[in-house]
Prior knowledge:
Distance between the termini: 32 Å
Mean pLDDT: 85
Amino acid sequence: MLPLRLKVLLAGFFSQLLCLGVARFAYTPLLPLMQQQSMLDDASGGYLAAVNYLGYMSGALLAASLNSLTLKDRLYRFGLLLAIISTMGMALTENIWLWAFWRYLAGLSSAGSMLIASGLILHWLLQHKLRAELGVHFAGLGLGIALAALAVELMLRLDFDWWQQWYLLALLGVALAIPAWRWLPPPVLTSTSQQQTAMQPEPGSRFIRLMLFSYFGAGYGYVVTATFIVTIVERLPGLTGSGNLAFVLLGLAAAPAVLVWDLLARGLGFLNAIILALLLQTLAIALPLTVPGLWPVLFSAALFGATFIGVVSLVLTMAGRLYPTKPARLMGKLTLAYGLAQVIAPAITGVLAKATGSYQPGLLLAAGFVALAALLLYWLKRTDQTLAQLQ
């Protein structure tokens, strides 16, 4: 029998595999095949990615506006169903507008796993006087990315068409939904947790503003690589056929990295750890543009996976610790900034790629945004010592 704490964390882990790995990120390794076998081009592929993130941002708005833990629990479970349905829907049409509808719903479902599940799990941990860390939960994001890439690679070798692959991914989603549904207990709000909230210092408006701007930059840099990495690698000289390998490495590096960043945050503090992750992520994005070859690209993918997940995990954990019984309050605001970048960036990157015939301008812009995000947090660290030392 698994301990209850581990079951709760694994419920989030499997929800990440489903809602992020399958429903959201399977699109990345499938994009080149869909471009070959359907009417998708660089621009329309970018627009579909932007719609997906618009759905994610809508989910963040919803999560930030809700106070009822019971309602959040219901929406979390509805999101699991929505992830399966939206994955299946991608196989049923070649209409760009219907694809956009299904990508929007997939994005909506991913907010349930990313935000609502994170909040419910943090609430349960704090209520049971356990350390508020989401490493196991967010490990599902990294392994979900790897799972999606490996599944697509296997199905490519078996000569499945793009629509057949979406069908099979939906069936995989059904299996993942079972533990994600069963192992997360219904939330209970107690008077003790309410008292803890009253004693918890909340961040000031300046702290929140700088975090929002910084997290926007992090979101911009993250989504460009996460959406287009397979296509980018496939188009680099001599690297045709290596795109899915890079995506697998990205996901595999992300899975254990969340636990490492949890440990680093204990010693360095949250802001210091996030700044370090952002600086390394900037290097990861820029590396393929400066050092050609397969090994630099694979190292870049692994470094990117190990850092972007650290930023997300640490930022959302920090938000949850600042609002113990209503973690989605700050999580939602931050994710709106992150989500807004994810709506804008794929569309801009797709248009730039179509206009120039290269993803290089889009990658340079993404690296610049992440570097700016690190600079903003460094400024915050130097000017807001109280919250900068949050452990």
